[in-house]
Amino acid sequence: MKIFSFFSKKLPVDTQQIEHAITHLEQLTSAELRVVIERKAKTTSAIERANQLFNELKMNQTEQRNAVLIYLSFKPHYVAVVGDIGIHQKVGDEFWQNVYDAMKKQCQRGHFTQAICNGIKEVETQLAMHYPILPNDIDELSNEVIIK
């Protein structure tokens, strides 16, 4: 397992495994998914920070408005899942809450990589149904996990 080292302290996440899950999702869907992990949150709200990052990363500018951001902070312990308007209109609040709830439980057990990968898998199922891969699909956003 590759542990990402940041400021000489290790974050308990396997970025390669997460990036593999993102690549798998994007091979089945025309959507985009990003993962951002922060050592320390810059706001007092996970959803506020996730929305801020969503906009900073220009995820609201994908052609089909079907991008998804998974956000994790270690201090304080935050998890958030944000979908753009195109996918949100198709899945609704209950779907996002269910993904969040499942991820939160795994994070509370210290299974951060698994929480993120399982969250990606849940999102992948819906994205593949509503936004299947297109023959001329273009990868609009990097699959690299962002560590802040």
Automatic annotation (TrEMBL):
Residues 14-125 form the TPM domain. InterPro entries: TPM_dom. This is Domain of uncharacterized function (DUF477). It comes from Phocoenobacter uteri. The lineage of its organism: Bacteria, Pseudomonadati, Pseudomonadota, Gammaproteobacteria, Pasteurellales.
